[in-house]
Amino acid sequence: MSSQDRTNSRRRTRTQVLALAATGALLLTGCSEQAQRGWLPNEDRDTTNHTGMLQDLWVNSWIAALAIGLLTWALIIWCIVAYRRRKNDTGYPRQLSYNLPLEIFYTGVPLMLVLTLFFFSDNTQRTVNEPVDSPLVVDVRAKQWAWDFNYSYEGQENYFAGKQAHLTGETGVEEELPTLYLPVDVPVEFQLNSRDVIHSFWIPAFLQKLDMIPGRTNYIHLTPQVEGTFQGKCTELCGEYHSEMLFNVEVVSEAEFTDYLATLPEGHLGEEYDRKPDEIARLSSHGEGE
């Protein structure tokens, strides 16, 4: 064996080893906790009463898509191999203008797949959006570039007025972000409003996100089920300091939440602090009339 052949052999061996290692790593990632939850941002399956259902819809949809993709590629490769041109073939193979059973199959199966995905997606969406009786209502007011939180809990009204964060890269800045407090295992209704431009309310670990539109109130209903600190952010490009429009979420015991409310000013910061509230209301009413 020449030196060149030995070099090529070693290269092939290294390539095979690397391919096997990559395949093994891919298979092992499928067993990881991150893979089992579809690399979603929630660390606990039951962070809220909705995260388990949303996680199942996401993961199962990807499993179905992967299975269909593998089957489709297998059929494509099979057709390439089975119907390839042989050495002694001459002329063109028999030409078919149509194949009715095959066309019915290729129409019916995708239709059933789409309807199945629609059924599970619609069922999940309806369950997530179902209003519930909540002892706690949080009126979230987004503003360039911070958050106000109005709490209504068992007849008590308090508010938190947020200030814009200034991210400097130094440690400790995150602790100064506006903080939303929620009691664990207590249903909450979020009333999402904007004081100026379109924003979007998102707590990644809760797996729910909704736009905040001037002159319109959107709603999210959920029950936090795990105590801890979570991150929140605006996910709608809303101006120069959009990237700094962050907030923290503290899910605590009901007793600790009640103690926290006692430290806040009484009352609510309503639409009187919105930017041109009369103009926003007029435009909103004009749009509904149309």
Can you describe what's shown?
The protein is an alpha+beta fold and 290 residues long. The protein has six helices and ten strands. Strands 3-2-1-5-8 form a five-stranded mixed sheet, with no helix packed on it. A five-stranded mixed sheet has the order 4-10-9-6-7, covered by helices on one side. Strand 2 and strand 3 form a beta hairpin. Helix 3 packs antiparallel against helix 4. 19% of the residues are buried.
Order of helices and strands: HHHHEEEEEEEEEEHH
Average pLDDT taken over every residue: 85
Principal-axis shape equals elongated
Distance from first to last alpha carbon = 83 Å
Q: Got a strand count?
A: 10
Outline the biggest β-sheet: 5 strands, mixed
The low-confidence parts are none
Query: What percent of residues adopt helix (DSSP H or I)?
Result: 25-40%
Q: Would you tell me the structural class of the helices and strands?
A: alpha+beta
Which quaternary structure do these chains form? single chain
- Please tally the helical runs, counting DSSP H or I stretches of 4 or more residues: 6
Radius of gyration: 28 Å
Strand content: 15-25%
User: Strands of the largest sheet, in order across it?
Assistant: 3-2-1-5-8
Please render the helix and strand layout as text.
Layout: H1 3-29, H2 33-36, H3 51-82, H4 100-129, E1 136-143, E2 146-153, E3 156-161, E4 179-183, E5 188-194, E6 199-203, E7 208-212, E8 218-222, E9 228-234, E10 246-252, H5 254-262, H6 277-289
Parallel strand pairs: 1-5, 4-10
Antiparallel strand pairs: 1-2, 2-3, 5-8, 6-7, 6-9, 9-10
Helix pairs in contact: 3-4
